[in-house]
Amino acid sequence: MLQFINVSKRYPGGVDALKNVSFELQNGEMAFLTGHSGAGKSTLLKLIAILERSTQGQVMLDNQNISRISKRNVPYARRKIGMIFQDHRLLHDHTVFDNVALPLIIAGLDRHDIKRRVRAALDKVGLLGKEQRYPITLSGGEQQRIGIARAVVNRPPMILADEPTGNLDPDLSEEIMHLFEQFNQVGVTVLIASHDLSLIERMGYRTLSLSQGEMVDNHG
Amino acid sequence: MFLNQSVTLQRATELSTLLQQNSNVSQTVLIDKQAALEEFRQYSGFGSAISTLADNPLPHVIQITPIASIDNQASLTLLVTELKKQPDIQLVQMDMGWLDRLNGILNIAQRGVSIITILLGFAVLLIVSNTIRLELQNRRDEIDITRLVGATRSFIMRPFLYSGFWYGFLGGIVACLLVNLSVWLIDGPTSSLASLYSSSFNLNYMPFTHAVLWTTFSISLGVIGSWIVVSRYLSELES
Fold first, then answer.
1. Measured between alpha carbons, how far is B52 from B48 in angstroms, rounded to an integer?
2. Which parts of chain B sit beneath pLDDT 70?
3. Does residue A58 sit within a domain?
4. C-alpha pair distances (Å), A201 with each of A191, A216, B5
5. Is A92 part of a structural domain of the chain?
6. Is residue A117 part of a domain?
7. Range of the domain at A170
8. Cβ pairs A/B, distance under 8 A
9. Mutation choice for A interface testing from B135, B144, B149, B157 by most A CBs within 10 A
10. B2-94: what fold?
11. Average pLDDT of chain A to the nearest whole number
């Protein structure tokens, strides 16, 4: 599903954020990405989200080299990845329903399908019945679930989560992680960047570790 | 056109009717010497001096209005030469200077209007693009988020192009209303000024087709302005 082949990223000014990184995530695999701040985690995620382009090497997503994809095709490649962020990135002047429906509206689905699939996604994350609320009126954990519902609503083959539990207490973190496990069980490839080493250890999935731009540990 | 002193009123009337038939003349008015003297007595302030005169020193006058399609000097001069060939005529006085001045003023006004039009067009572009830029700033998060969940360029641009359309539309309509309002406001003064020059010059309200044309123009400016701003913004964001 996702493959990094000798990927390097150098930012203008000569900072090497990633050095010759290679790894592969199989279809339906779940893995964690760890590393200290500045180790290159964000850069790696940005390369997958096509917010940055690699300086060298190839980033393959679903057999497509997304590091050399044309600008016109970027949006379509992004639709294959459901992205989840530490700060949720919700639209605060829109209801929960509208937030979750956004990817479907962009994809041009009809109203009836949108309604059905939004409800299904909200049901999965346990927020059914709160469609007409505004995100700000919900708790941090619930806001993160809105983000997760939005990421999975158009059934992408891959989920990418950047510190999804960064602001949550341990119990809530565990709940969110189990949610990811459930998606993984139905065949979605999941990559989660996280600091929370003890939680990662308890979950027992493959872990990719970055240090100073290099892949230092890749076990599973 | 001043006639010779010796010309009788009857001959003057004949001449006036004759000239009326000239294809370049739209109207003739005969001012007979008696009426002219009365008028002069009344308005000049020489009333008592005139009373002492033994006989009327004024000639008969025929006032000639050329047809409106004669608007250049050459054809007017031709008409004057033609008139001078008539017997019994002492002097043909043409208000040419006045006409030249009027044409000059009209030319300047026309240029002025063109310049103002261009400036206003630029103003519309600038105002619309600035408004759109503000809107972009306000909706920066929204744009980032929709981009992250796979929105295409056109999906993001569409609402801003709609805004540009409506700004242009409103601007065009308001401009047309303002033009008609100003016409309404200065119509009275201009017609009274024109009547002082014994002209029936009149200001026209903007015809409907022009209003439609201007609104369309303004709409295109609005859409083009917002398109430029949004596509520049998105190009900066794109990796």
1. 7
2. 68-73, 95-97, 99, 197-202, 239
3. yes
4. 15, 17, 126
5. no
6. no
7. 2-80+156-219
8. 46
9. B149
10. Alpha-Beta Plaits (3.30.70)
11. 92
Kindly provide the b/e burial profile for residues B145-166, where b requires at least 16 CB atoms within 10 angstroms of the residue's own CB.
Answer: bbbbbbbbbebbbeebbebbbe
Ranges of residues in chain A with a pLDDT under 50 are none
Query: CB-CB: which of B145, B152, B239 is closest to A91?
Result: B145
- Residue A139 CA to residue B68 CA, distance in Å, equals 81
Reduced to 3 states (helix: H, G, I; strand: E, B; else coil), residue B139 is: coil
Pairing verdict, β B25-31 and B61-66: antiparallel
Residue B123 amino acid letter: A
Amino acid identity of residue B200, one-letter, is: S
According to the model, what pLDDT value does residue B83 have? 77
What is the Cβ-side half-sphere exposure of residue A37, based on CA atoms within 13 angstroms?
1
Q: Say which of A52, A75, A83 has its CB closest to residue B239.
A: A52
Q: How far apart are CA A147 and CA B40, in angstroms?
A: 95
The CATH number given to whatever domain includes residue A14 is 3.40.50.300
Which residue from A52, A71, A83 is facing B148, i.e. has the nearest CB? Answer: A83
Are residues B141 and A106, on separate chains, in Cβ contact within 8 Å?
no
pLDDT on residue A28: 93
Closest CA to A81 of A11, A181, A2: A2
Mutate which: A47, A89, A152, vs B, most B CBs within 10 A: A89
Contact B145 A103 (CB under 8 A): no
**Residues in chain A closer than 8 A to B153 (CB atoms):** 72, 75
- Interface contact A79-B239, CB threshold 8 A: no
Contacts of B239 (CB under 8 A, 6+ apart): A50, A51, A52, A53, A74
As a whole number of angstroms, the distance between CA B214 and CA B237 comes to 35
Q: List the domain boundaries for chain B.
A: 2-94, 99-238
Specify the number of domains making up chain A.
1
Q: Is A75–B147 a contact, with Cβ atoms under 8 angstroms apart?
A: yes
